[in-house]
Amino acid sequence: MDVEPVDAAPAQSFRRTVLRQRWEDLVFLHWPVEPAAVARLLPAGTRPDTFDGLSYVGLIGFRMVGLGLGGGPGIPYLGSFWETNVRLYSPGVPVRFGPLSRSGSAHP
């Protein structure tokens, strides 16, 4: 198995806060799947990330709280909501190692 080293340094540094948010009541669930099962769901030119020959599908649920612009307060009535994501992972897209969200759902 080839493992590429990964460090915590961001690929790009931003000088100004554009959006602020906090995640609460968070759950990460992942299932191992055959890479071929998810390859057809990925954008053209990408491939599934693998670990020990398997790819993983993630179901992530959380409550986003205090969503707001810049350093200001959260947006009233819109700044807190539940969100659910289904994630597939691919090396190099959209960042060096990143998730591709297949679906998302937000509920106030």
TrEMBL record:
Top-rank lineage group of the source organism: Bacteria
InterPro entries: ADC_dom_sf, DUF2071
Protein name: Uncharacterized protein
Species of the source: Micromonospora endophytica
Lineage: Bacteria, Bacillati, Actinomycetota, Actinomycetes, Micromonosporales
